[in-house]
Structures are given as structure tokens and as C-alpha cells.
């Protein structure tokens, strides 16, 4: 009986958040090593389906870094990164494009199989991301792209049709060529363009830690200026820097709240969005 009461309490706790966010758009960035763990990614998809069924409008932007690197190695290419960005020559760009397209279809199919309704969107083919070559001091990064503009119309059309948009982070240049866009930055820009209520960035760490070797030092809530200070002081470093900068950019451009959460935790999205305490780091203005 006590277990039943606890389950009821959880539902009651979620109710005001469901009311608050009903009809609002939430952009979720998923990717990395989590995409290869079927149990983890299925749990994430179940959370997203739940959000959709209670009237929230989720949008998924996904990466595929480990798969891209694996496919490059299979083709005899050596992955190279500069400042966390993949050097993308013409052969690598073809692999990026093909890998993300396949992953995109797979995610949409998985969500549909789990009882949701999803539609695969290619940001290049569907005209969502206009891009240009990203300049980099001292290094030709090839077809690594920077975002020029976001066209939200295909996303809104999909949402209005009752489906969950699943978006690849590949942009199209004025030259007609494909450009590889960092998935965190793509998700941030899409969240800002669509005026999302929330931007949730799913990682494989608990969130932002004061000591990266001690998960008990999780910071539950951070203001933008505090996060920027932690970057300057070297508390936030290496691979977490572009993620934090992505969520800060979304905040600056009008997204109300942003979250960095651990996707390895069962039902991480629901726990962060629909409970009083949450489980990751919430970044606010």
C-alpha cells in the first residue's frame, strides 16, 4: 500500500508542472555514447513520449559522434578534433551526413515503436539550418559549419501535426554544400529560434560539478554569470565548456530555463522537469 501511495504522490507532484508546461515547447539534445545504450536511450524516448502525451511539445536534436568516429575508422580515416570540433574534410562530411541520416530514421522509428509519434527531419534537406564554413585560426576545419539562420517552419508544422520532430545537425550553405554543425550549438540555436520554454541538454555526467571528480558536488542551480565565472576559473572545463556555452547562448536569446542532466539515470527528463528538486543542473538568467 505504501508503494502505491508513493506513486500517487509522484503524480500529484508532477501535476502543477504539467499544467505549467502544457502547450509549451521543450528542446532536448540527445547524443554521444548514450545513443549506443539501448536501455538508456529507450528510457529517454519514453520520457519524451510522456511529455508529448500530456500536451508538452518536445523537439529532439541529436548527434552521433561515436558512430561517426567508428564509421570513419572503418573507412580508414582517423578522427581529428580541434577545440572539441571535428575536422570535417569531404570524405568525413559524407560519413557524417550518412551516419546522421541513418541515426535520425532510427530514432524516429524507435519512438514510433514505443507508442509515440515522431517524424525524422534533416536540417539540411528540410531547410532548417542555413550554414557557412566555420573559420578557425590556424586550421582549415573543412566542412565544419557555423549557423547562419534557423527556419522553424518545418519544425512548427511537424509539432502542429501532433508529431515529435527529430532533427539532424547538418546545415546547407549558400554554395549548396552540406556543413557539419556541432549538435549542442544546433540544439541551442533551434531552442532560441522557436522560443522554447526549456532547453534540456542530456549528457553522461550528473550535471555541473564544483569538483569533476566528486559527483556529490553537483550544483543544482546556476545563474548565467556564475556559470561564466566557473569557466574563467577553470572549474568548468574541457568537454563541458561547449555544453555550458550552448545553454548560456539559449538563455541569452530568450529561452526561459536550461538544464544539463545525466541521461544514464532512469527517467532523467521527467525527474528534472516534473519534480520539485530535479536531478541535474538548472541554468537560469
Strand and helix layout:
Elements: H1 2-21, E1 25-30, H2 38-53, E2 57-62, H3 65-74, E3 81-82, E4 85-86, H4 90-113, E5 118-122, E6 129-133, E7 145-150, H5 153-160, E8 164-168, E9 170-173, E10 178-180, H6 183-193, E11 198-203, E12 221-223, H7 224-232, H8 240-252, E13 257-262, H9 268-273, E14 281-284
Parallel strand pairs: 1-2, 1-11, 2-8, 5-8, 6-9, 11-13, 12-14
Antiparallel strand pairs: 3-4, 6-7, 9-10, 13-14
Helix pairs in contact: 3-4, 6-8, 7-8
Features:
285 residues, alpha/beta, Carbamate kinase, four-stranded mixed β-sheet, 9 helices, 41% helix, 22% strand, globular
In short:
This protein is of the alpha/beta class and 285 residues long.
How would you describe this structure to a colleague?
By secondary structure, the chain is α/β, with parallel strands linked by helices. It has a domain at 58-182: Carbamate kinase. Helix content is 41%, strand content 22%. It starts with a helix and ends with a strand.
Amino acid at each position: 500500500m505504501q508503494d502505491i501511495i508513493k506513486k500517487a504522490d509522484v503524480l500529484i507532484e508532477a501535476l502543477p508542472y504539467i499544467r505549467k508546461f502544457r502547450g509549451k515547447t521543450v528542446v532536448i539534445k540527445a547524443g554521444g555514447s548514450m545513443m549506443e545504450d539501448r536501455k538508456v536511450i529507450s528510457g529517454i524516448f519514453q520520457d519524451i513520449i510522456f511529455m508529448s502525451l500530456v500536451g508538452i511539445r518536445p523537439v529532439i536534436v541529436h548527434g552521433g559522434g561515436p558512430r561517426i568516429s567508428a564509421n570513419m575508422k572503418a573507412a580508414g580515416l582517423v578522427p581529428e578534433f580541434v577545440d572539441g570540433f571535428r575536422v570535417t574534410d569531404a570524405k568525413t562530411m559524407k560519413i557524417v551526413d550518412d551516419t546522421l541520416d541513418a541515426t535520425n530514421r532510427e530514432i524516429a522509428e524507435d519512438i514510433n515503436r514505443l507508442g509515440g509519434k515522431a517524424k525524422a527531419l534533416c536540417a539540411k534537406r528540410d531547410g532548417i539550418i542555413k550554414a557557412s564554413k566555420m573559420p578557425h585560426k590556424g586550421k582549415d576545419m573543412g566542412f565544419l559549419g557555423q549557423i547562419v539562420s534557423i527556419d522553424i517552419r518545418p519544425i512548427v508544422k511537424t509539432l502542429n501535426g501532433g508529431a515529435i520532430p527529430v532533427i539532424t545537425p547538418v546545415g546547407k550553405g549558400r554554395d549548396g554544400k552540406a556543413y557539419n554543425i556541432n549538435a549542442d550549438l544546433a540544439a541551442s540555436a533551434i531552442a532560441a529560434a522557436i522560443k522554447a520554454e526549456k532547453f534540456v541538454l542530456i549528457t553522461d555526467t550528473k550535471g555541473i560539478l564544483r569538483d569533476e571528480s566528486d559527483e556529490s558536488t553537483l550544483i543544482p542551480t546556476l545563474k548565467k554569470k556564475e556559470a561564466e565565472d566557473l569557466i574563467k576559473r577553470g572549474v568548468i572545463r574541457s568537454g563541458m565548456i561547449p555544453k555550458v556555452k550552448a545553454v548560456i547562448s539559449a538563455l541569452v536569446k530568450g529561452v526561459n530555463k536550461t538544464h544539463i542532466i545525466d541521461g544514464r539515470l532512469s527517467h532523467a527528463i521527467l525527474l528534472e522537469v516534473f519534480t520539485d528538486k530535479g536531478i541535474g543542473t538548472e541554468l537560469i538568467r
